[in-house]
Each structure stands twice: as structure tokens, then as C-alpha cells.
């Protein structure tokens, strides 16, 4: 099968930027504040409230018996070279050997040509418009990123095809819908990129300024973030803006008005009068079917389709069926590979074909590749690009290449800091050293050289041991229970009030009283610990720091609950009057937040600030590493799994965390410099050897059974490598004196091994259908990009999926032009 290599290079004066760094990269860190704002306020800052959409009818007619062509892509604006290739093909006529071609399956088979000749006689003309299906640029589709990673590659492609001057006859309309990465910028960048400018395209206004983010080969016409296009022969194209899978009331009313123009919004409840167009294309930001998994009834996308009176054919109960009098294509990006479910193809991998319905995932517009071998196998795909085995080999090789993980962001920095902090905590501060005792006191700085900087740091973190008592473990039990129950309350606040939200005052008041009573019951024991609890001694310094942190966290969670309750009041105020008593929980929660923080600091913060700070830093590092990696494994890795699968991923995350914490710290404490070098080198060598061994041509990955077999083999090798590294690091060695060079070694070894272990974790998790998004972001490959050129006739819609195995950096006119892969040809119709 075909396999990805490096970019095909040619003499080009341009310098293409690679894919953005996803693993805590600089761009991602810079955009965290915007992502955070969207997470907290995205439901209130809804730009769609101010939009006034209109039906675009300019494509509604076509010459009799002549096909209508248009293009679709999604998930663009990442690596500039891949986006440039997509942009070039979108703005160019394409040619095939004949009118009824078969997809290119073999490695050497590439039949899509940029030039028509005797061997390429069937023309796929440039589309009459281009539709962009979301996530226009990464990480955040703001003005600067769109200009750099979307506008520039598209304009480069235009100049290479048509020349530097903009020619009006070469422009085509461009339409789009936003994805989550567009929403991170509150649709500001999306507005500038897709909405119709107030002045003419490519013309300057009286102040000498032209439209922002203008593309030389395109013009913008739409007035909202969602769009309805009337196409020839009775076809319609609906582009939905479903933020987080949900559709707003105004948008729903707009599309429902198209179901039957005689039905006004006032009579919208008359469902019998509604009828969606018989021939319809629906573009959504997120797929209706993905990873071989049936959509669930409770998912937001199902509710959206039902609101629009569209049959959710992608549910298991419907099995891809539509009434014979209708045909529909559901198409989206978000997942950065190609997959087709149902429809009728020239070649189909599955016998689950439908002549009038297809669900297509086509997120290959330039963003990094998502592994295509993640497959739950509930519903079989009819076509996939790249194939499973190719995806497995490519991802395994790239993820088990530590240098690639290093380049993908600041994983190495996080790993280095984690190892440095834990090593420092284990050997320097008196409080945490007395807990771990991994090193004899005689090898610590204060015992060897009292005048050194390290000795003075240790002296500053020394404490006077008093009469410590174990009675404070009762405080610890209460603090842990308090934090756990408050966290549960924060997660369930919305669900708790959901049943009473739209009911009468009595039902609301009863839910209100139970909510207040529950939290007062949680807070009441704190009074006992403040005034009625007098242990005979002092808590251990590390325990005291733990208690300070727990009560500070309880204070923070209380504020989160108050914020969530405030959101509920905001929603209820839309339909009910809010009275003064409704604000009581807010006052109680904010009062408790203040009391909890003060109680923790006043009652347990009796040790020096430097000691408490060092302990809290150690605790947070351990929690974020151990707890964070387990949580990450369960939530992100186990997202496609039920409870048993999530427990498996929790165990996998725990093993990953143990390796990240133990190996670098044990090496630096107990090993000589030679041993450190040998262990680190051997781990890297074993990783690279595994990457070669587990991607041989003889190893197949054509189904889930074969994939999990490879996963078990990878897991066994990882366990052997990890256990061996831990045993060698700690076996029979004596502790080594603490020096600055050892502190530096902790950072260096932690940084190197964090890239190794994270790559191992992703490749094993991926084999068990976990972390598809993170694995793709870690691999950061621009290969296997694609877009779809559609042909529309009175009875049929045909999609030609054009694949780019290897992006090229230029298309020289004086040399043989490259050819591209025909990935799929599929049809739906009446």
C-alpha cells in the first residue's frame, strides 16, 4: 500500500511554515486565554444573535443538461505547504482518464492530472464555488493566523496559476461555516474571512484600505455564519453553524422557513406542513458518523437534525435509510482524514451501500492528519483514506520518534520541570524530604558544605520539629470529603436544577432549598474544626501544607459552583421572574469560599511561607502528573469507550505517570553518569527499534482484531522497556550527593524521557482506539490531504475525492506536473 515520506521538494523561493505545535506549543499557549474565554463565556457571547441571513440564489440555474460543479474542503490553515496544494487544486481544472474511473488503490496508481491530453480526456472543471466546512485555521482562526496560514497559501496558488494580477473572471464565490477553532476568536476572524465586505472585493475604499483577508481567486457573498444555497435542478446546500453541536432558535427558524415557504415562523409548530428539500446537502462542523461509531440518541447533532425536520439517518435505528423520495448528503470535517459511510461508490469496502444517503467525513483541507485506523467497528465505512495499515505505520513511526515529539511543542519542558521539582523536593526541603527519604541526610547540601548556595536554600527551607500529632488526619479526611463532594456538586449543578428550570415557583423553591441545605451540611463541620477541635500537638509540616492547599481548592470550587448557579439564574430569567431569595446560594457559596481560604491559611499555615510554598508546589506537581495524566487518559483517551474501556485507559495513564515521575528521579538520585547515559540511550534505541519492527510490511492492520493484537505487542514492549529502566535506575545503587549538576541532570533527563514516554503512551493508546486527536497532533504530518469536487445533475450528485499523498512545494510549468490520487468516486440520487 502507499506510504507517506517527506515533502516532494523543488526549487521554490517560498519558505513554507510547518504544522502548528499541538503539544503545548507556543501558538497554543498564546491562545489559551481565548480558548478559556470561549469555554467560560461561549454560551453567552453568541454572534449569531445579530446575523441576518438570506438565501443565495445565484447558483440556482444551470444550462439545460449541463452538469454543475462545486468544491468542498474543511480543516485548513495549518501547514502552509499542504494548504497551498489544496488551494492550487481547488483553483485548477482537473482531468481523469475517462468518465467512469475507479479509485486509485495501488501505491503507484495516481490518475488525477492537471493537464488534459490523450490519456486524460474527462474534465473536472473548477467548481462554481468553494465551500469551507469549518476550522479555517489553527490553533485559533483569528485575523493574523488566517492571513498567514489560509490567505497566503491560497493567494500563492492563485498567482502560480493565473499570474500576480487579480482577474475578475477568475473569481468564484467562497462560503463557509465555523468550527470550534473559529469560535475561539468569537467569530471575528471568520467574519473577516467569509462575510461579504462593505466595500467591493479587491478594491480600495476612500481611505485606501481594501477588504481584509481577501482571496485573489474568490469573492465573499454570505451575510451570516450559516448559509443556504439554492442549486440547480432542485438541489439545496445548507451550511449549519452548530456551535458545540447545537443550533440556535433564529437559525433553526431560517432553515425551517425553507422547508415550506408558505409556513411562517408563527405556525412553525405545524409539523405536517414542513417538508425539507427532496435533494439536499447538509454541511455541519462535526460529523454525523465518525470512527465507525453510531451516533447516540442523546447527542446534540441528533437534536439539531430533529429540530430541522431532517431524518437522523445516521442513527442505528435508521441504519442509513431515507424515504425513497428523498436523497441527502451529510458532510463535515473536524476529523482530519477521509471516510465515507453509505452512498454508492465505484469501489465499496462495505456492502452497506445506500443510493440516496451518505455520511462523509472530509477534513483534509490542510490540517495535520488524524489517524484513520481508529475504528469502533459498529458501522463499516465504505471508503477510507489513508488506509488503516498505512495510517498505523505512519503514526507509529512518527510517534516513536522522540525528536518529532520534541518539535511538536513543550512536552519536553513540562517533563523537565516536573523531574526537577520532584528531585528537588526529594532531597532539599526538610518537609518533603522527611516524607520521601530517598536520600541519606549525610548527602544533602547542608551536611556537606554549609556555605554553598544549595546549603543556604536547604537552610531556608528547614523547620523546627515540634510535637507533631496524627490527630490532624481527621482534618485531612474532612478536607478530602469536602473537596470531593463540592466537585460533584459543581459537575451536577445544572442537572440538579434542570427538572425545575421551567416549572412553577414551588418546584423551583424546593430544588432551591435542597441545594442550599446540601451545601450548608458540607460547610457546618468547618465550624467544629475551627472552634471545637483542639489537637494536642501540631500537624506534620507536609500535612499542614496539604490541608492549606485542600481548603484553597475548596474555596475555588465553591466559586465555580456559584458561577454555574449564576448561569442557571440567567437562563431562568428568560421565562420567570427572579426574586431576591434566588440569590441566596450565591451569597452562601461566596461566603464559604472566603471562609474556607481563611480557615486553611490561619489554622494550618503555621510554618514558614517558603516551606508551605515548596510543599504546595511539590503536591501540585505530583497531582498534575499522576492525577492529570490519569484524568487525561480517561476523558480524552477513553472517549470512545464505555466504563470498562475507561478503566483500562485509567490504568494506562497511571503507568505513563509512574514512568514520567520515577525513571528520571531514580536515575539522578542513584545512578552514576555512565549509567544515566546508558539507560537514556538504551531507552531511545529500544523505542526507535520498536518503531521499525512494528511497522514492517508483514504486519497487517486491516481490522480491530489485528489492531488490538499489535497494541498488545506494543504494550508488552513498553512495559519491558519501562520496568527495565526503573530497575536499572534503582537496583543496588547508592545515592549520589546533591549538586547543581545533578539538578541540571534531572531537568535534562526528564525532558528527554518525557518525549519518549509520551510517544509510547500515544502509540499504545491509539492501538486501542484512544487519543486519535492527540496522536495526530503529535505526529504532525501534512501527508494524505484531500478535497472533494462535486458534480451535480438533475438526478444525481457525484463526489470525486482528490487525494494528495505528498504535498509539493511548487508546480513548475516547464516540467512534468505531478499527479494526484483519485481516492473515491461516490454518488447519491433519486
Automatic annotation (TrEMBL):
Which Gene3D superfamilies does the UniProt record give?
Answer: 3.60.21.10
State which residue ranges cross the membrane: 20-41, 403-428, 472-491, 512-533, 539-562, 583-604, 610-635, 647-667, 673-693, 714-732, 744-768
Q: Which key words tag this protein in UniProt?
A: Membrane, Transmembrane, Transmembrane helix
From what superkingdom does this record's organism come? Bacteria
Give the matching InterPro entries.
Metallo-depent_PP-like
**PANTHER family annotated for this entry?**
CALCINEURIN-LIKE METALLO-PHOSPHOESTERASE SUPERFAMILY PROTEIN
- What is the name of this protein? Calcineurin-like phosphoesterase domain-containing protein
Species source reads: Nitrosococcus watsoni (strain C-113)
